[in-house]
Design goal:
globular, Quinone Oxidoreductase, Chain A, domain 1, seven-stranded mixed beta sheet, single chain, Rossmann fold, about 25% strand
Length: about 375
């Protein structure tokens, strides 16, 4: 099969032929239809997040079941499926508590070592040398995924666009749930890339009003408006504009979806007294954002970190929202690339040239 390999940090992704992986007990082999292009992969490419190399990135996939490992039930070969970037082990302290977004094995095995939960990778070169897996290593024609993270795709959802359910919309749904958002609450979304656009959609679906989108790029703000934002502003005008919109108080909930100190502080400064700020964006390792302690304490602000949703609990609900058209799966997909163009896709992302979410299509781009 073909796979896009990152040989070393800072080098371009190169497509090469590698053996098709084999699923072990409790695992599923997915023939990948599409894989989303995410900033978190870009952090690895640039060396801003530590991860072993050589590796195969890509953590947001849709596809069809190609084979089942021993003990897997409830799935059939040929079924259309999606997978989230968080792959719960189902057995650790947090998974057993229903907190799969904090799965210990996912972090200690996959995110630190690039392996699955027996301590080994499923990807190898023809000479037998290992290729480490970022989540399932979705920038390839086939990927092995734990069965705990493989979900049948409902009828009516386009297979290739469905890839964005695995991270962009999955992360957005988790952020809105983490916020405890209620109908009628006011919302600001700082940074409207793939995840930010998902938050805009889902916040509106939860009944938020107004929903304010904030970004530097006018084309991204236009996209946010098309997906449900009631108001859009550039960062410089946002603080005063939000005050004017909310009677001088600020919003109930502010989401930050980029992972930069300045956007983190902006989101916090948009809150009303007693408001909640939900940071979602991943920053390079070691990056900090200053917080005014006295305001945080006196004005009873809450900062609620959100890494994603809970796969087995939340993905079925997200799929129902998508099937009902409440969340538009294809609406956020703005760019499509062939696997051979994977490196180009991340270069476009790095330059801020992706409006919405890009996907890499294993059958070719358009």
């Amino acid at each position: 099969m073909r796979a896009a390999v990152l040989e070393r940090v800072g080098e371009p992704l190169r497509v090469e032929e590698v053996p098709i992986p084999e699923p072990k007990a409790g695992e599923v082999l997915v023939r990948v239809a599409a894989c989303g292009v995410c900033h978190t992969d870009l952090h690895v490419i640039k060396g801003e997040v530590a991860f072993p190399t050589p590796c195969v990135l890509g953590h947001e996939i849709s596809g069809t079941v190609a084979a089942l490992g021993p003990g897997v039930e409830g799935l059939k070969v040929g079924a259309k499926v999606v997978s989230s970037f968080i792959m719960p082990c189902g057995q650790c302290y947090y998974c057993l508590r229903g907190e799969e977004d904090l799965c210990e094995r996912f972090f200690s095995y996959n995110r630190l070592k690039g392996v699955l939960y027996d301590g080994t990778t499923r990807l190898f070169r023809k000479d037998g040398t290992p290729l480490w897996m970022y989540s399932m290593g979705g920038l390839a024609e086939y990927a092995v995924v734990p069965a705990t993270d493989v979900f049948p795709l409902p009828e009516g959802i386009p297979l290739e666009e469905a890839a964005v359910l695995g991270c962009a919309l999955f992360t957005a749904y988790g952020a809105v749930k983490t916020a405890g958002l209620e109908g009628g609450e006011s919302v600001a979304v700082v940074a409207t890339g793939g995840v930010g656009l998902g938050i805009v959609q889902i916040a509106r679906a939860f009944g938020a009003h107004p929903v304010v989108a904030i970004d530097l790029r006018p084309e991204k703000l236009a996209k946010a408006k098309a997906l449900g934002a009631t108001h859009t502003f550039v960062p410089a005008e946002a603080p005063q504009a939000v005050q004017d919109l909310t009677g001088g108080r600020g919003v109930d909930v502010a989401f930050e979806a980029l992972g930069k100190p300045e956007t983190f502080r902006l989101a916090l400064n948009l809150l009303r007294d007693g408001g909640r700020m939900v940071p979602v964006g991943i920053a390079p390792q070691g990056v900090e954002a200053g917080v005014e302690i006295t305001r945080l304490v006196r004005r009873k602000l809450r900062i609620l970190g959100s890494y994603g949703a809970k796969p087995r609990k939340d993905m079925p609900i997200l799929l129902k929202l998508a099937q009902a058209g409440i969340v538009g799966v294809g609406a956020g997909v703005s760019d499509r690339f062939a696997l051979e163009e994977a490196d180009l896709a991340y270069r476009h992302l790095d330059k801020g040239e992706i409006v919405g979410r890009a996907v890499v299509l294993m059958g070719g781009g358009t």
